[in-house]
Amino acid sequence: MSWFKRNENENEIETTSEKNVRTEGLWTKCDSCNQTIWKADLESNLNVCPKCGKHFKLSAKARIDSLLEPGYRLIDTDLRSTDPLNFTDLKPYKARLKKAQRDTGMNDAILTALGNLGPHAIVLSAMEYAFIGGSMGAVVGETISRAADHSLETRHPLVIIATSGGARMMEGIVSLMQLPKISARLALMDDAKVPYISVLTDPTFGGVTASFAMLGDLNVAEPDALIGFAGPRVIEQTIRQKLPEGFQRSEFLLEHGMLDAVVPRRELKQYLIRALDFMQPGSVALHPVGQNSAGSS
Amino acid sequence: MMAENSADNRTETPAETLSVAWQKTELARHPKRPYPMEFIQSLFTDFSEIHGDRSFADDLAMACGMARFHDEPVMVIANVKGRTTKEKVARNFGMPNPEGYRKALRAMKFAEKFGRPVFTFIDLIGANPGLGAEERGQAEAIARNLREMARLRVPILATITGEGGSGGALALAVADRVLMLENAVYSVISPEACASIMWRDASKRALAAEALRTNSESVLRLGCVDAIVPEPQGGAQNDPELAIKFLDEALQQHLSELKKLATDELVRCRILKFRNMARFFTEG
Prior knowledge:
The structure holds two protein chains of two kinds.
Chain A: E1 27-29, E2 36-38, H1 39-44, H2 60-67, E3 73-75, E4 79-81, H3 93-104, E5 110-117, E6 120-127, H4 138-154, E7 158-164, H5 172-176, H6 178-192, E8 196-204, H7 206-209, E9 218-221, H8 232-239, H9 250-255, E10 261-262, H10 265-279
Parallel strand pairs in A: 6-7, 7-8, 8-9, 9-10
Antiparallel strand pairs in A: 1-2, 3-5, 5-6
Helix pairs in contact in A: 4-6
Chain B: H1 14-18, H2 20-28, H3 36-43, E1 45-50, E2 62-69, E3 72-79, H4 85-90, H5 98-113, E4 118-124, H6 131-135, H7 138-150, E5 156-165, H8 166-170, E6 177-181, E7 185-187, H9 191-199, H10 205-212, H11 216-221, E8 227-229, H12 240-259, H13 263-276, E9 281-283
Parallel strand pairs in B: 3-4, 4-5, 5-6, 5-7, 6-8
Antiparallel strand pairs in B: 1-2, 2-3
Helix pairs in contact in B: 2-10, 5-7, 9-10
C-alpha cells in the first residue's frame, strides 16, 4: 500500500484532439542524440530533430502539407480492402484493418493529393507507415495506379513518397500483383515522358522498393532512411553474420549507385521544384485553388 | 516478400500431414519433381545458353538461351535450383542475385530486337536475402524487370512449374499468359517466413500456407494467373513425360493465340490485364 495513491482518472482530461495540456507530452527525447527536445520545436521542424538532424517519421497528411501549397485536393480516399483471402493469423485481418482505420483516420496506407508544388501542378501520393506498416495491398495498388493514370491524362508529374514494410502479406498473392500493376503504369508514363520522382523515406522495403520506389526518373531518399528489399533481420539470420555499420541506409545506397541524391526533408521541396523545372520545361496549367479543398485548413 | 531457405528440410509434424495446403507446398517442392531445365530439355530443341549480365557476373541460378519450340526460334529463361548438394550451392539454391534478373532482362531485350517470343519457367523459393544482393540493387533489378516486361514488344509466356516465390518469381512473370502447373504454388511470401512474422513461430508454416491460399486453384480463382496446366495423377514426379506433354499442349495453344495479335494490341492487352487484376476493394 503506497502513501499516495493516484486516482487513475484524475489526470485524464477528455480531449478529442491530439493536443492536451498534460506536461509529460510536451517534451520528447531524441533517440539519436539523446537530447530533450520541445515537441513543438520538433513539429515545426517537420519532425526533424533540431539538435542533431535525425529524421523522425512524418504522417502522410503532414508530408502533403509540407510540400503542396494550401488548397490542394485529396482524391481516392474512400477505397477499402475487402480482405480477399479472409485472412487470419493470431488476429483476423479485418480486425487489424479496423484498428488501423480507427488509429489513423485513414482507410488505407496511402493518400493522394492534386495540388501545386511551387510553380508545378503535380499528383502527389504519400504512404502512411502507421497503417499496418505502410504495407501495400489492393487499395494501395489501386490508389497509386489511379495517381499514375491521373498523371497520364493531365501530364502533371507524379511524386510518390514511399514508406512501407513491403507487400501486405494478409492479402497474399493479391498484394504481390500490385507490383506489376503499378510498374506497368510507370512504363506508360515513361513512354509518354511524364515525369515521375520517387522519394524513399524510413523505412522502405520489399515489394514497394522492388517496384515503384526504384522506378523514378529520379530516386531520392531522406538521410539515414533504412531502404532495401530483404529486411536486415532476415539477412542476418540467413547469412549468420552481423551486418556492416550503415548497411541499407540511404548513404549506403547512394554510395552503391542506387540513388540520385540524399535530400534532407527541409530541402526536399526546393529539390523537387528544381528537378521538375528540368524535366518539365513547358508550362502546364496549375491546379485551381480554393474549390473543393479538402486539405490545409 | 522474403525467403527462408533453411526451413524446408525439417520433418513434418502430424498436423502438417493433415493440412492440404501444406501437402501442396511439399508437392511443389518435391525433390523428384521435374525442374525448369528438365521441362526445357524436353519441350525445346537446339538450346544454346547465353551467359552474363554484361555488368557484373553470370548468375548460375538463372539460365537463358536461344532454342526452338516446334521449330520456331524462341528465347527461354529459367530458374535453376540444382539437384546435388554441390550443384545447389553453386546455384545458390535457385535464388538469383541482381545479375540474374539483369541477365534475364538482357535476354528478353535481345529476343525483342529480333522478334522472338519469350518463354519463362519459374521455380524458386524467393529472392535472395543476402548482403551482395542488396549492395548490387536487387530491388531495382526486380522493379526494372516488371516495368520492362510490361512493355516488351514480343509475346511472353510464363510457367510456374514449382514454387512461385514472391518478387523473384514476379521478375519473370509479367507475361501475356501466366500458367501454373496444377501442383505449383504462387505466393507473396514463403509459409515459413510468413509464420515467423505473423505467428512469431516458423513451425506454424502449415497454418501460414493455409491462410496464404497459395495453391493453383485459389490463385486462379483470385484472377492472378491465366490458366492451370493439369499434372499426372499424384503429381508431375510420377510421370514426368506426361506432365511435359500437358505443358507442351498448353504452351502451343497459348502461343498460337498470342501470335494472332498485332504487337501494339499484344502490349496493350498485357498492360490492361495487370491493370484490372487483383482489384479487391470497395469504394464509397
